[in-house]
Amino acid sequence: ALADAAPPRWDGACVFCGDLNYRLSTSLHPAEVECAVADLLVAAATEDDEDDELSSSSSSSSLAAALFEEELLTYDQLGRERAAGRVPDGFAEARVRFGPTYKFYKRSDRFDTSKPGRAPAWTDRVLYTPGNPGFAVRSYDAVSGVAAASSSKNKKKQKTARSGRLLTGGTHSDHRPVVAVFEIDTRQWRPPSSNPIATARRRRRLARSLADEPTASADPPVRVVRLD
Questions:
Q1: DSSP 117-146
Q2: Which of helix, strand or coil describes residue 200?
Q3: Which of 6, 99, 113, 205 would you call most buried, defined as having the most Cβ atoms within 10 angstroms of its Cβ?
């Protein structure tokens, strides 16, 4: 289980990602969450337009992240488990700047409101180990997402902060894929010189190979034939 995993204690980097299935601990209906997400994204875009110093898509994404953290991510089970120390120490997550990634109607940007009507959540996550100066997360976004505002102006506001491109598509599933972009700087990279997990695996492989190696038999006797 994720909560039972030992914290990483080596140099290098580790990325843990997937459908971690953490939900929102709230009784909000999917329609209420959908409206809240739409309002928060529009509020971030509007505030960005009104502030002369915040004119980039990066600042708009930061505002959206702050609003999500204040309004919805307070109910996030993964955040609560991390705060309580019940998930592996040493893992971090970039700020969530996108709406919930589950559960959608397939081929749609609408949340699934059918029974049991559970609140949409950020079930799909990317965690990583920080601390290596040669390894850094550059962007963290979801493919497509809630159509919070259908106008091209607001769609422009949902561009990925670093890459400058809008992630679209991915509506064939009831999940929205999440994309994290990492940068490796080989000039600063610290190789995993003391990875105990890798060392233990190498030892086990060596022990198995030695155990499976056939024992060398003695040399066959040599028969000397005398020729007269």
A1: -PPPB--EEEEE----TTEEEEEEEESS--
A2: helix
A3: 99
